[in-house]
Design goal:
The chain has one domain: Alpha-D-Glucose-1,6-Bisphosphate, Chain A, domain 4. It is 36% helix and 27% strand. It is built from 5 helices and 9 strands, in the order E-H-E-H-H-H-E-E-E-E-E-E-E-H. The longest helix is centred in the C-terminal third of the chain and has 27 residues.
Length: 179
């Protein structure tokens, strides 16, 4: 994209083969944000970093308080390493070498993380993806699916929050290691 700084979080489409792709193909609302990091980042490093940023720790605190779904940094590390199938309010729906798809405890949303080496114009770099899928609520009597007012009211906030989460992970990944 012309005029977009290399390190800017951008809204785009999930790449072919993304674990989020089947939801998009079904017509479910999905989004996909990505950012480039000019160094190699493993999927495990990305997942651990993403879920242990200061911003995401705030979300974890809220989940612990409001829906009794506590989590720790150690559990985030276990999720990143593939040693657990649940984390806070999510369970693992699918996993591959460079992707993780989580389903929330109510079954209505999906969170997706992907790391892709050698993308974004840096041969040693990594493109980091974060996306979501929101499944509509189905009225039991009519069978009609809709997202409801809450979804539409929070959609803009969700976009800004998604960008902030990815930017927060990127910032931590760009910091020099502490000794």
């Amino acid at each position: 994209m012309v005029g977009v700084p290399m390190n800017a979080v951008q809204l785009g489409e999930p790449p072919s083969g993304a674990l989020l792709e089947p939801y998009k193909e079904r017509g479910v609302y999905t989004d996909c944000y990505f950012v480039d990091v000019p160094r190699a980042v493993s999927q495990a490093e990305f997942v651990e970093t993403f879920y242990t940023t200061r911003l995401f720790r705030l979300e974890r605190f809220i989940l612990s308080t409001l829906v009794s779904k506590p989590s720790t940094d150690q559990q985030a590390r276990q999720l990143a390493a593939g040693d657990t199938e649940s984390f806070a309010a999510w369970r693992v729906e699918a996993r591959s070498a460079n992707q993780l798809l989580l389903c929330d405890f109510m079954g209505r949303t999906r969170s997706w993380l992907m790391s892709a080496a050698d993308e974004g114009g840096h041969p040693e770099g990594t493109r980091l993806y974060f996306g979501s899928a929101f499944l509509p609520k189905v009225d039991r009597s009519s069978g009609k699916a809709s997202y409801g007012l809450g979804f539409h009211a929070l959609k803009g906030f969700h976009g800004h929050y998604s960008e902030a989460l990815l930017r927060s992970a990127q910032s931590r990944l760009l910091r020099p290691p502490s000794s």
